Prior knowledge:
Beta-lactamase, single chain, globular, alpha+beta
Amino acid sequence: MNLAKISGYCDPKFSQVEEIFSHSIKSGHELGASLAVEIEGEKVIDLWGGFCDEARSKSWERDTIVNVFSVSKAITSVCLGRLMERGLIDVNAQVRDYWPEFGSNGKEKITVKDLLCHTAGMFGFKGGIPVNNWKDWRQYTRLLENQSTYCEPGKIQAYHALTFGWLVGELIRRVDGRTVGEYFKDEIASPLNIDFMIGINSDDFKRCADTIMLPQLPSLNQLSFLKFVPDVFLSTIFKNIKIALKTDYTSDAFDSLMFVDRNLVNSDDWRMAEVPAANGHGTAEGLAKFFSILSRDGGLDGVQILEKATIQKMREVQSSGPDMVLFGLPYKFGLGLMINAPITPIGRKRNKHMFGHTGIAGSVAFGDIEKKIGFSFLCNKQHKAIHLYKTSIDLTAALYESLS
């Protein structure tokens, strides 16, 4: 059996963080992973190790990229934030002002903010999500144009797990003319040398790690008994979980068709497509740099990702849940950014200075504007719900303990 090795650099001040990272891989809890942290613009941790594939035949290298799933939403949101900053998009305007075909079947009053905050009631495809030809962008946007909402827009928060990318991405395309992937590459990634892409090319396949998915979505099925418990015996949070379990919007947002083929997310079609809610690929180093810049007023080397005022606006809580897709939990969103994400590192100990996003396979990236941190932990083995973010939680706790 091939033995996992750990490579890279860690400032001795954060030796406990390095030990946790190393143990997570050598114990077999993680298959392969990378971790990067910048503090006040200085790279203090850049580690990687383990394997890129289930057979453990390909080692995780410094330039290995991996699908970060919903961490992609933060990047997509920042791209829209640049258009907002330039006066090209008003978050309070109706989506149909920029995308006229969208304004039908109960969607007439949906605002840009509704899309960013997961309150549009468009969290799934009513006829099921197409799982062939992911590169056919119009296939997805046409379905979303024509369908009605699941619920009244603006009334509840219900996480748009996959539809977020086509909804926000089409706004960007309508206003700017470029796709999200093109826009990010031209405006941010290339000028700042950030190794992250939405839609990779075939030349990058050789450095791409496979993601080992569970046969079904991580869930809170162990709490399904709550559906039969009278409300009088439940706290507010368990009442909300009960409502979410009964409504079962989760099954629409995370369509089971996505999980029929566990290898779908490792296919060429998926990797080369632009699915801006779920298929960004990159390195931990690249994402840590991205969030480090945003945590330090938004610019580096003469390139401004966002102005400080825009970052602050995007960090302001716009929706606080309970989220009826994410099991009724009290997720808090700014403009496309997670501000508090229960059972993950983001918002730990009610830290109001954090912002970023998590991914359903366990990857996490965030910034902290108080401590000027850019953090990214990427991995390629999906865990059950209770363990999904265990490694990133442990790493974050050790990091902040070292800074205290």
